[in-house]
Amino acid sequence: xxxxxxxxxxxxxxxxxxxxxxxxxxxxxxxxxxxxxxxxxxxxxxxxxxxxxxxxxxxxxxxxxxxxxxxxxxxxxxxxxxxxxxxxxxxxxxxxxxxxxxxxxxxxxxxxxxxxxxxxxxxxxxxxxxxxxxxxxxxxxxxxxxxxxxxxxxxxxxxxxxxxxxxxxxxxxxxxxxxxxxxxxxxxxxxxxxxxxxxxxxxxxxxxxxxxxxxxxxxxxxxxxxxxxxxxxxxxxxxxxxx
Length: 243
Fold this sequence. Notes:
two-stranded parallel sheet, 12% strand, elongated
């Protein structure tokens, strides 16, 4: 070893430094991941009962929201509304009305962007900016996050976890944003319903037309309605809406 050329010793030293640096980097990366455990997104509830949650992703369609709220109130149903920050800024009275009637309000980002295409800093900005708007209007901070377009990756999951959010997806999609016939929306829900279902909807005219029938048929089948926070937290038995 003592007879190795100085060049070889320098190379060995550089390699040792690089290996040490990579080891330190890996340690801190693993520590960061452990600090914010990446939970799997929520696709359905956890009660094991005939309880379901209606969710509405809202970035447009304000003209249909009052009718949706009226139908929900008439049927004694509480839903979960995921709002973009820009929509909430433009229609604060509708947001207050949702809150007043006991609906759960979640975060849907600020501008409804494809988050998978953004940097972690940009994702954080989208979530926190919407959060501030919703909290300013309602006085409460949302903790449920529905990513726009249902898109998420590890980076989005990590940012959401760091900010204290649970990512919410769905188990039944009405695809009502395509504005099909109301009967099509009903048939995408009622025959496929299951315990703890999370049903994705949007404020559209066909949704307004389909919702009374969906509520009526599911109640007749013995299902109760609750918010996402209730069925995820196993409190739907206490807080869910009776048929």
